[in-house]
Amino acid sequence: MIKKVDHIGIAVKSIAEQVAYYRDVLGLPFLGEEEVENQQVKVAMFQAGEIRIELLEATSDESPIAKFIAKKGQGIHHVAYHSDNIKEDLDNAKKQDIRLINETPQMGADNKQIAFMHPKSTFGVLTELCSEE
After folding, report:
1. CA proximity to 93, closest of 115, 124, 125
2. Domain VOC: where (predicted)?
3. What does the pLDDT look like over 16-41, one tens digit per residue?
4. Which residues pair with 4 in a beta bridge?
5. How many angstroms separate the CA atoms of 96 and 54, rounded?
6. CATH number 3.10.180.10 is the correct assignment for the domain at 2-131
7. Where are the domains of the chain?
8. pTM over the 0.90 mark
């Protein structure tokens, strides 16, 4: 079951160029950076109340983030929802004819299991489910 918004993913060309804005201008606590090799992305995380902001920088020209920026430019990439049972929520979405990008969860940033639903099935919003399973 979906419990809350976990984070908002923002596609950026350069994390280094944007850290100061989120940390110094907005005053958001900087939680750190990590690279998620299987997603071909570097992630910088900030805390905004109960929600995290994740800056996503491509580590490869073949990365979904690189393709997103090439097509749409920098900006909001996805909204992620915290699930207490990601497999059950994926099965439920599939039964409701939602197109899944990931049929099974995979490892994402912050040691979370993640899976994406295609924006063509979710009214234009790339939707991520994440869980600490």
Report:
1. 115
2. 4-132
3. 999 999 999 999 999 999 999 999 99
4. 82
5. 29
6. yes
7. 2-131
8. yes
